[in-house]
Design a protein that fits this description.
Oligomer: single chain
Radius of gyration: 58 Å
Number of strands: 16
Helix content: 40-55%
Number of domains: 3
Largest sheet: 5 strands, antiparallel
CATH architecture of the largest domain: 2-Layer Sandwich
Number of helices: 13
CATH superfamily of the largest domain: PAS domain
Order of helices and strands: HHHHEEHEEEHEEEEHHHEHEEHEEHHEE
Strand order of the largest sheet: 2-1-5-4-3
Structural class: alpha+beta
CATH class of the largest domain: Alpha Beta
């Protein structure tokens, strides 16, 4: 599990250096994850701390009142039972066995007790064998044997005993107060009084009353000694997992077998086997905490969602801008590399043009001189034919000089012959030069020209050379039965577009990436690789753009964007 987490974290940090969509997606994931973690982690920690502090504060606010209830109720119980147990003990010390064994005397004593203390039900004298020899009360309990009762065995040891709640022979719940006495001559007896449980119920209901707090008594076996609002009536088993009895008041959380939890405070009642318990269901006092928990979760969810949105969305936009910037940078570097190639070939072209221009000048001079001699001479056979041939030499020299002139354009800035023109006319004139070649090859050459476009201001001769090169290449690349279409349309308010599309063999992506480089050709021995190179230079020099779209087996389309007016600053 740990290895998987570490490997996943490593993969998150792995970002390649190439300019590709995967790189920017990986970089975006990394930065987004870091920003989300850095933003959400303190929010989670703060929410957790606040929740726990509030929970502890709520627990303290609940436990303190429960402790107070237990303290007050235990004090009242201690006073109630202590007074009555002391009264029984005083009577056992003040009267002899014979006096107490007299029903008349015992009745007088019992009536005196009831006049001073409420809650006494009856009073009885029990001999050393455990048989009740005298009794005053509403039940027929004289001569009842108590030797098998737990409180009887306990009184033999501790002398004073407060029993658990019993139903006993009378069949009604009561509490036994028994005091043992050792008289003269070693004779012992036990004076027993009972208290009705309603006295305890009233005390718990008044002293321990505290809203939704449930307060009750249990014995050591966790048997309810008073009724409980949550766990049933008298003599039911209390399901709470309570600890052993303690004289100190203890507070905390306790659980029932069904999973319900309670805040509880409990303590032992002095001189008894009873434990006083006060509980409050967790669901009651946790309602504000549950509401706070819901609010915290809602605020946390909204905060995390807001952090996620405000991190991921701007990060995506940032990555797109970064990717576009890097792609422009790569394109600029490629353009610089291409420009350096153009510069190198320009210097080479300048040297070649310079060396070629010298013999061309000599040829032109000599042909002119020869033509002068012929014109000055008299008539001779085929004079006109010779003059025509010498004139063709001059035309060839002019053509060669034009080529070297264009080559020199790559090594130094040459002024273009700018003039206004209709591009449709230039294109039609150019198409007329290659129509014959297209017909010979069986290629359909068509033109779709928008004649409503404004005139452009550019170099007519150089544009004609561009169109002638592109259309000628398209015708040569198209097989018999194919089609070449020249389209003229307005691109926007600043540019007009001329497209030359063919249905020829097309080019691969690798070829397209090198198509404008000097001396790169796919015509093998029939090409020199300068046509598109020169075309590219002319278009750029005139302030335009040229692009190519091609797919092998489907054809090629060159698109030339020409400005209506050449911009002052060259691209």
């Amino acid at each position: 599990m740990l290895d998987a987490f570490v490997n996943g974290f490593k993969r998150l940090w792995e970002v390649s250096d190439d300019v590709s969509p995967q790189r920017y997606r990986a970089l975006g994931r990394l930065l987004s994850s870091l920003m989300i973690v850095v933003s959400v982690a303190p929010l989670l920690v703060l929410s957790w701390i606040n929740y726990n502090q509030y929970q502890a504060s709520m627990a303290r606010e609940i436990e303190v009142p429960l402790r107070d209830v237990v303290q007050r109720t235990r004090t009242a119980l201690e006073v109630l039972l202590g007074e009555r147990l002391s009264t029984v003990s005083l009577i056992s010390e003040a009267y002899s066995f014979e006096k107490l064994a007299s029903d008349g005397d015992l009745a007088k004593i019992f009536h005196a007790m009831r006049s001073e203390f409420d809650g006494f039900v009856d009073l009885g004298l029990i001999n050393e064998e455990g048989r009740q020899v005298a009794y005053v009360g509403p039940y027929e309990l004289k001569n009842v044997d108590y030797s098998d009762q737990p409180w009887w065995r306990e009184v033999q040891v501790h002398r004073k005993v407060v029993s658990d709640i019993l139903s006993g022979a009378r069949g009604t719940p009561h509490l036994v107060l028994a005091v043992g006495h050792l008289g003269e001559g070693g004779r012992s007896w036990v004076l027993k009084a009972t208290i009705e449980t309603r006295q305890l119920d009233r005390l718990l209901a008044t002293v321990g009353q505290s809203g939704e707090t449930d307060i009750f008594l249990v014995n050591r076996e966790r048997i309810l000694q008073t009724a409980s609002a949550n766990f049933g009536g008298l003599f039911k088993k209390c399901p709470l997992d309570l600890p052993q009895a303690s004289w100190n008041i203890t507070a905390g959380r306790v659980s029932a077998p069904d999973g319900s939890r309670f805040a509880a405070a409990y303590a032992s009642v002095p001189d008894t086997n009873l434990m006083l318990v006060a509980v409050k269901p967790e669901a009651d006092f946790m309602k504000p905490l549950s509401a706070l928990q819901t609010d915290i979760l809602l605020v946390l969810a909204l905060g995390v969602a807001l952090i996620f949105v405000m991190t991921v969305v701007p990060m995506k936009l940032l990555m797109k801008r970064l990717q576009a910037s890097d792609e422009r940078r790569v394109a600029v570097f490629a353009q610089m590399e291409h420009t350096q190639k153009l510069s190198s070939i320009g210097r080479l072209a300048a040297g070649v043009a310079h060396e070629v221009n010298n013999p061309l000048a000599i040829i032109n001079e000599k042909s002119g001189l020869a033509l002068d001699y012929i014109n000055a001479a008299g008539d001779f056979p085929r004079k006109e034919r010779v003059a025509e041939l010498i004139g063709s030499i001059g035309q060839a020299v002019d053509r060669a000089r034009g080529i070297t002139h264009r080559l020199l354009g790559f090594s130094r800035r040459m002024e273009a012959n700018m003039q206004q023109m209709q591009l449709a006319e230039v294109i039609e004139e150019t198409i007329s030069f290659v129509e014959r070649d297209a017909q010979r090859r069986g290629v359909a050459l068509t033109a779709s020209l928008d004649r409503g476009l404004p005139e452009v201001t550019s170099d007519r001769g150089q544009l004609q050379q561009v169109f002638l090169n592109l259309v000628g290449n398209a015708v040569q690349a198209t097989a018999e039965g194919g089609r070449v279409e020249v389209t003229l349309r307005g691109l926007d308010k600043d540019f007009v577009e001329v497209a030359v599309a063919d249905t020829g063999c097309g080019m691969s992506a690798e070829v397209v990436s090198h198509i404008f480089e000097p001396f790169y050709t796919t015509k093998k021995e029939n090409g020199h690789g300068l046509g598109l190179f020169i075309t590219y230079g002319i278009v750029r020099r005139l302030g335009g753009e040229i692009s190519v779209e091609s797919e092998e087996g489907k054809g090629t389309a060159f698109r030339v964007a020409i400005p209506y007016v050449k911009p002052e600053k060259q691209a």
